[in-house]
Amino acid sequence: MTTVITPVDDATRRRNRRVGLLLGVFAVAVFLSSVPFWQKLVQAALDAQ
Amino acid sequence: MHSRMKRSYSLWLLPFLLVTALPAQAEYGLNFPPPATTIARDIYNVHMLTMGISTLLLIGVFGVVFFAIWKFRKSRGYEPDQNFHKTWFGTWSWIFVPAVVLGIDLTIASSAQKVLNKLWVVPEQEGMLDVKVTGHQWYWEFEFLDEEVRIESRAKTEEEAGELYLRDVDHRLVLPTGRPIRFMHTSADVNHAMWVPALGFKKDAIPGYITETWAEIDTEGVYRGQCAELCGTWHAKMPIVVEAVSPERFTEWVAEAKAAQAAADAEAAADIEWALPKLMEKGKGLYNTKCASCHQINGEGLAPAFPPLKDSAIATGPAAAHIDIVLNGKPGSAMPPWKGLLNDLEIAAIVTYERNSWGNDTGDAVQPRDVKAAR
Amino acid sequence: MSTTASALHSEHEHHPYGWRRWLFSTNHKDIGTLYLLFALTMFFLGGLSAMAIRAELLYPGLQMLDPDLYNNILTNHALIMIFGAVMPAGAGIANWMIPLMIGAPDMALPRLNNLSFWILPAAAMMLVLSFIVPFFPGGGTQVNTGWTLYPPLSVQVGMSMDFLIFAIHLLGISSVLASINIIVTILNMRAPGMTMFKMPIFCWAWFVTAFLLILVVPIIAGGVTMLLFDRHFGTSFFNAAGGGDPVLFQHLFWFFGHPEVYILILPAIGALAQVIPAFSRKPLFGYKSTVGSMLVIATLGMVVWAHHQYTIGMSLGTVSYFMIGTILISIPVGLIIFNFIATMWRGAMTFETPMLFATAMVLLFSFGGLTGVMLAVIPADVQYHDSMFVVAHFHYVLIPGAIYGLFAAVFYWLPKWTGHMYDEKLAKIFFWVNMISFNITFFPQHFLGLAGMPRRIIDYNVIFAEFNFLSSVAGLIYGFSHLLFLYIIIKAIRGGQQAKNKVWEGATGLEWELPSPPPFHSWETAPKIK
Q1: Which domains does chain C have, with CATH numbers?
Q2: Alpha-helix residue ranges (DSSP H) falling in chain B
Q3: Among the four residues B267, B268, B281, C329, which has the most C-beta atoms within 10 Å?
Q4: In the predicted structure, residue C413 carries a pLDDT above the cut 70
């Protein structure tokens, strides 16, 4: 038996999850964009050659 | 006249606290100290303009709100106007309020921009005096690049400085009046910021960067300031004292400083055997000014950041390792390399002092030539 | 639909009791309460550190703290107050009120809601550990950088900095998750007929704030991650000797740090937009322009960060841009203040405690905003920067701007939350003691800054003694006044006059149609909005 913790219909529940996931992905993308780590990593790889 | 005007200006910023501030204002500053450079005077005027505008606006806001509080109260039987937000005023205020604020903003910004242009761009002209300012944990180093004079400026101890404690230094930065000076700021360790309010600017000293400011001092006098960027343990103990003197006196001072520097270099270069008491005497003075802010006068350090030297492995072990750490510092800690800052004799004296004080009794009299060999 | 309703009914019978009710809670009101209690605890912890700072500065000389301990307390005061007290308090009120105000049964993502709260105590533990590890042998040095954590100083610090970095990561994750939840709730869970432009301003304020959080918190997370790599894994993002740039961290920090100010203030502004119309007994003046102003504040607020760093040596063109941009923020902020005053104008005002705090916020936040305009002006800022003037400015912004707004919100909704009226007489005493001592604490600090006292110093010259003494004495009174606040809250939780559905005569909004306190699932059937 699944517990219904918020009394909303399934369509709303699915919509909530979808929008929430989208925002989560967006936050991770912002995090990654702030890190010039990737550039440094590529640079280090090039230097190693 | 000038200072009285200043005081009355700042007093209108005191709507509530007039009473508490009045006893203090007789002796203590309520506003910037009197400016000593042209740019500081311009800055002072911009400051007074924005403060004046802000004060007027604030009086306006307080006035309107207090009037509303007095007039539009339920207890006075005032009936609320449910349609006030639908009047022409409510419909169009979102346009005219921003327009008014924009007007005020542009007034402030345009007068600020003029001063900013002058402040920000170091004038290109002949005869500029170049001073390199290096922040260290926790003292200032000033280098007159063309004159080849270098001074270190440290806070005086409480006993020496008295009333001026934390605002007084052992070696003042002597500068000439009537000549544009270019300051180049950098740091040897962490960020610092040189701030002398009377000169009118503050600039960060950042390792790896050289930031520029300029000033032309027009009044002789002594101007005091402090480090403004948090730089660790003794951030509070990095005062700056500028002594502005006539150009003639400045030339003399440069000559004196150079002579003293030459004498010290000659003494250090002389290849003689230094006796232990002589080194100890020299070392004590140097240790107490250059090392004691971290390792403390009593050699016990300040846990956990600054290790003790008393009974330490370094100060009682082989002399070579001891000389090495003083010369090259300890990476990843606040211990800087001293090789660029101290000559052979000074390092020898300090190391000797540390090895024979506070119960350390190696009996070593480290010689300048040992240091020279280790460089 | 009917199956959902019956499932709901059985669940209603079986919701957990005791400690399980809190640990496993998916209920927006219980989680809101947890947030608020957490914020209150941290508020007192942060207050305690502020008291230590003011006690140290009572007289010139070293009173009771070592310099590094002083710097550590200073760092903790900021981080605890910002991340531990004000942000969770805002999130707590959002959790409690948004579903009630938009006619929803609960938050959109209840399990996520549970997670985003329970990360907080872990983060607080890390923060406390960063404070206490240096007292153990081998614990390294204390965090002596201030909350700005600028390298290279922050690279010198011992392992307590690593605890701090992880604390910031956890706090960041928590607030990003909470923001996601708030946005989804506002987008998806509004009652039929509740269009975005019929929503109470408080919900709008949180909607904007949540987007700001998602946009800037990951940036600080990136910044401190790079700091961690510089400290332990041999990179040199911020080390000039290794080809890095110490100023890059400052840019990343303030790209987060400046919008953070609006993150702290916008929810308070939103609360004020509920409180002022209620006690003026007429609708908010300029609903749409208030919403528009908040959007403009959020947008402009994201592109003016470098006004915290005028002294790092940027080019003339760059600093001119940041100056103009910063000064322009006065336009939307001014418009909001104007709308609040116009709401009071021709109203029928009464001054219960929420309205007292709201009025104080309008007046004193204007003061802090105006010194903000002074600070935006670069030629003058090169004098004010890093002086006590700045300390006075941002306390005038954050205490009236954020905390008074939260106090107004707490007193406004406390009867709704607890079901009991608070002690109005004590609350009024609290307001007056708090407001007066706040002003005496921070007003003199403007003069200290102008006279040349830098911020973040443990010891100062005797010329600064008088104002510091005054500031410290008033500061201690200010700090202790909050014990009265605590007492009023405890008293209201324990009992008191039963609150009606509609607690305040002039209050409008869906939350006042439910009983006080509201039922377990706030709106089981969505209300109809006309």
Answers
A1: 34-513 (1.20.210.10)
A2: 2-11, 18-25, 38-71, 88-120, 158-161, 247-269, 276-286, 292-295, 313-316, 319-328, 344-355, 368-374
A3: C329
A4: yes
Distances (CA, A) of B182 to B129, B193, B207: 6, 16, 19
For residues A7 and C521, the answer to whether their CB atoms sit within 8 Å is: yes
Name every chain C residue with its beta carbon within 8 A of the beta carbon of B56: none
**pLDDT digit string (tens) for C188-207?**
999 999 999 999 999 999 99
Look at residue C85 and tell me whether its pLDDT is greater than 80. yes
Q: Which of A19, A24, A30 sits opposite C188 (nearest CB)?
A: A19
**CATH number (domain holding residue B170):** 2.60.40.420
What is the share, in percent, of chain B residues with pLDDT greater than 70?
Answer: 92
Nearest to C144 among B85, B166, B233 (CB): B233
| Chain C contact residues (CB < 8 Å to A) | 1, 4-5, 7-8, 11, 26, 105-112, 176-177, 179-181, 183-184, 187-189, 214-215, 217-219, 221-223, 225-226, 229, 235, 237, 248, 252, 521, 524
Q: For residues C322 and C307, what is the distance between their CA atoms, to the nearest angstrom? A: 6
Q: Rounded to an integer, what is the distance from CA B226 to the centroid of its chain?
A: 3
Radius of gyration over alpha carbons of chain A, in Å? 20
Using DSSP's 3-state secondary structure scheme, residue B304 falls into coil
Domain that holds residue B291: 270-374
Give the distance from residue B240's alpha carbon to the nearest chain C alpha carbon, in angstroms: 12
Q: C511: which residues sit within 8 A by CB, 6+ positions away?
A: C97, C100, C101, C413, C416, C518
Query: How far, in Å, CA of C524 to CA of C6, rounded?
Result: 12
Using 70 as the pLDDT threshold, list the residues of chain B that sit under it: 1-28
Alpha carbon distance C220, C226 (integer Å): 10
| Residue C13 clears pLDDT 70, i.e. is over it | no
**A7 contacts chain C (CB < 8 A):** yes
Those residues with Cβ within 8 angstroms of residue A5's Cβ, 6 or more apart along the chain or in another chain = C11, C26, C106, C110, C111
Domain boundary among B100, B120, B140: B120
Q: How many domains does chain B have?
A: 4
Domain ranges of chain A: 12-48
First-to-last CA distance in chain C?
Answer: 23
Cβ neighbours of residue C478 closer than 8 Å, sequence gap 6 or more: C434, C437, C438, C441
**B362 and B258 part of one domain:** no
**C105 to each of A4, B270, C354, how far by Cα in Å?**
12, 89, 27
pLDDT digits over B69-115, tens only? 999 999 999 999 999 989 999 889 999 999 999 999 999 999 999 99
